[in-house]
Amino acid sequence: MKNILSMSQLSNEEVYSLIDSAEKFKAGKKSMIGTDKFAINLFFENSTRTKSSFQVAEMKLGMKEIEFEASTSSTTKGESLYDTIKTEESIGASVAIIRHSQDKYYEDLVNNHNLNIHIINGGDGTGQHPSQSLLDLMTIFEHFGKFDGLKIGIIGDLSHSRVAHSNAEILTRLGAQVCFGGLDAWYTPEFAEMGPHMDVDDLCREMDVVMLLRVQHERLSEEENKNFSKTDYFNKYGLNKERVNMMKADAMIMHPAPINRGAEIADDVVECDKSYIFPQMANGVFMRMAMIEAVLEGDNVRDEATDQERQAVLH
């Protein structure tokens, strides 16, 4: 695969292959496929986990990072995203990890431009977040060894969450039953096509995985933020110890973070026995190693094909 842009782009076989590769990295597999290659992390929205996780993954694969800060880049002078990426490609970057506020920013780049650099989507607007989705799948698969037949509850700010869009789509395709909770206004027709909206207490009792989402205040309207009550939201939809005790013995609590303690989750639940929030983050490094390796391996295949063509001409 040349690029990894959305979960809909990946076949089920490719998803399982990436999980297998990530698990091998976690078990100690070494790869220096990135030796003498450069990565550029183009983050036009704030990030802690995704950006630092990709940076560590790149270093573990032997890559060097070209430093980039959106606030001091030529994009502030009007340079287009394409020209920025083409510049980094021209000076030697092999992989660009991009987070951008525009939904599907990558479509124009891959369909209408001459780019040879690999692009991995680090999150687009409220659209897709493939690396987060894949690390979530890895964490679930480690625990249950399957997806088919699992019940997954996603609770929170569905309509603004790229994690919700990516996970609901791929988990449904892999055979899980996905259900939703939270404010009715965030349960849009897109999600209604995939699963029912349920009371949070019922979700906690019935689900194998309870996946919480942050309320994305930066994407809410001024009026929505003005009327939002953290206490009311937590009482209605938040995960507290009482609701944790309702869950199945082997159920998982997940959250892509950042965590708003006391809003979607209680402070004493974040690291409880059923919580996989920090193991998710640890798995993120291994999954992002697998993603980078997957796109770089395509270069090796093309290089080998070119060498064979050269040899055929010589002989």
Would you write up a description of this structure?
This protein has 315 residues and is α/β, with parallel strands linked by helices. It has 2 domains: 7-127 and 285-309, 3-Layer(aba) Sandwich (Rossmann fold), CATH 3.40.50.1370; 130-280, Aspartate/ornithine carbamoyltransferase (Rossmann fold, 3-Layer(aba) Sandwich). Helix content is 45%, strand content 13%. The chain is built from 12 helices and 8 strands. It has helices at residues 12-26, 49-60, 81-90, 105-112, 130-144, 162-173, 189-192, 200-206, 222-227, 230-237, 241-246, 277-314; strands at 38-43, 64-66, 93-100, 118-124, 151-155, 177-181, 209-212, 252-254. It has a 4-stranded parallel sheet, sandwiched between helices. The protein has a 4-stranded parallel sheet with strand order 6-5-7-8, with helices on both faces. Helix 5 (130-144) packs across helix 12 (277-314). The chain starts with 11 loop residues before the first helix and ends with a helix.
Strand content: 5-15%
Discrete helix count = 12
Topology as H/E string?
HEHEHEHEHEHEHHEHHHEH
What's the gyration radius in Å? 21 Å
Major beta sheet, strand line-up: 2-1-3-4
Shape: globular
* Corresponding CATH superfamily of the largest domain: Aspartate/ornithine carbamoyltransferase
CATH architecture title of the largest domain: 3-Layer(aba) Sandwich
The share of residues in helices is 40-55%
